[in-house]
Amino acid sequence: MSKLSSIQREVLVGILLGDANLQTFNHGRTYRLRCLQSEKHKEYLYHLFDIYKNISNSGPHHLQEVVSHTDIRYEKDINKRYNKYYFNTLTSSSFRFYAQSFYLNGVKMVPYYIERLLTPRSLAYWFMDDGSLKWRDHSKGFRFCTDSFTYRDVCLLSTVLQKKFHLATSIVKNRNSHRISILSQSHDHFRNLISPYIIDSMKYKIA
C-alpha cells in the first residue's frame, strides 16, 4: 500500500483525537483505520471515506446497534435501534507510527509531541469529530469533548491550543472527566482557523 499523503496524515491526527481508531491483528506490525459515525453524521463519514478510499477496498457500510434499557415508569424493557455507518481501510505499516504515538497498551493517549503533529486542518477534523458550540444561543465559546483522555492529556492539548494556535482555553470538569473550552474571546480566531476545512454538513457546529 502506498504511503499516506500529507492530507491523510493531517486528517488522521485530528480524527484520532476524536472518534476514529486504529486496529491491529498481528501484534502491531500493521494497522487499519476504522471510522464510525451516527446516521446524523453520515455525510461526514462518507467525506472521510473519500479521503482514504485509495487505501480502502470497499465503501462505507451500514450498522444497526440495538441498545436495551428499562423504562422504570412502565416497568418494561425497551430496545432502541441506532443506525450507524463505518468503513475500514486496508491494513498497512503506514499507520504504525500513529498507533505507537496515540496508543499505550491499547488505550488512547495524547503523544507528548502533539504540538508538532497538530495543524489547522487536524484541528478542524478533531472539531468535526468531537467539538461543538459550548452553549448554543448563550455563549460564543466552543468545546472539545475530551472525556476519554486523562487530565494530564487534556492539559497538554489545552496548552498546545494556547501556545501554537494562540487560543484562549480553559479546562472544565465533566463528572469524572475533563473537557476543553475555547473561550468566547477566541471565537472569531478559532472559526477563521478551521473554517476552510469544515464541510457543509458540519457548518452548524460553528454557526
UniProtKB/TrEMBL annotation:
Keywords: Mitochondrion. Pfam families: LAGLIDADG_2. Residues 9-190 form the Homing endonuclease LAGLIDADG domain. One of its GO terms (biological process) is mRNA cis splicing, via spliceosome. InterPro entries: Chloro/Mito_RNA_Process, Homing_endonucl, LAGLIDADG_dom. This is Homing endonuclease LAGLIDADG domain-containing protein. The keyword Secreted does not apply. The keyword Mitochondrion applies. GO terms for molecular function: endonuclease activity.
